[in-house]
Amino acid sequence: MPALSHSRAAQVAYQDLLRLHLEETASELIGSVEERVRNGRSYLYDRFRLGTEMKSRYLGEGTPELRARLARAAELRAGAGARRAGMTRLARILRAEGFIATDRDTGSLLLAFARAGVFRLGGTLVGTAAYALYQGELGVRFDSDELAQTGDIDFASFERLSVALGDRVEENPGDILQALKFDPVPGMPDRQVWKWRQNRGEALVEFLTPAFGDETVKPLPALGVSAQALNYLNYLIADPIPAIALYRSGVLVQIPRPERFAIHKLIVADRRRGGADQAKARKDRGQAAFLIGILAQDRPDDLAEALAEAQARGPRWRQRIGASLSRMPDTAAILRDLA
Predict the structure, then answer these.
(1) Number of C-beta neighbours around residue 85 at 10 A
(2) Among residues 256, 296, 269, 237, which one has the least CA distance to residue 134?
(3) Of 33, 30, 26, whose CA–CA distance to 49 is shortest?
(4) pTM, whole model, 2 decimals?
(5) What is the DSSP letter of 231?
(6) In principle, which of 130, 206, 245, 324 could form an S-S bond with 195, CB 3.0–4.6 Å?
(7) 214 and 262 housed in the same domain
(8) 141-196: per-residue pLDDT in tens?
(9) Which domain holds residue 194?
């Protein structure tokens, strides 16, 4: 069945709500903007005095869009009241237009992580919780089956970025999770904690980071957590995008680009073949097929570029993508037509 689009009013409301949240973040600038360049990439910081000390707070990668918002920081601060009223109004419009809101447990967790700076410092929401937010980015309606939660809420970040930023979250995610009734699940054999289980339900929060070989547990200093390293994850979380989770007046988070999410799902579906993960593999293929069907119509160049990049990374990548597509003839035909 073809995907149904949200109304034009809903799509405009979503983009306006996203813009207001990005402006709200820029309005929090305290001091002056400091630029640092690492490996040819620009990173911006808020440089300000606290007592007798100078402090630096990471703001984000130095894109033209972020620079333009920061240049308007004083103006944006003055409009705080009207902006927040606008956020409330737009969130109400989205609910009335049929956007599926984030459930209370997930929404409260995302809000607490956002306030602590998890997404500002490079954390990216991945998995089904991120997939649900493509209803706004792509302007399409999802049904309840497509958004059925696995119970997992996964966050990912690059280890090198976390080390290089020189900044930390304002509240440790572990403390936030304990306050929300999550218990740490020590790993084996080293007892490092990278996942947390809700003690009154089935929700599981996991922290992940890209692996380039051995899939070990690594620290993410900026986020104050350890993370399980996974191969292929570097492809997924490269160049993430901002998104709004519809909880209260919206929560600003960061998610993978939809075309990367779709191709990555083909890869992980093959990794999960057989055993207890077969159901998850079927769900991975279903999410990939849905997104590829939409992107082939609305963003074919982005999809073709993402596929070509993944295939260019080596024979193992091509093998895993091909193995999943062998079970998905309609999706395979769509991708062939892109070429």
Answers:
(1) 12
(2) 256
(3) 30
(4) 0.94
(5) T
(6) 206
(7) no
(8) 987 666 655 578 999 999 887 777 888 999 999 999 999 999 998 765 566 889 99
(9) 100-256
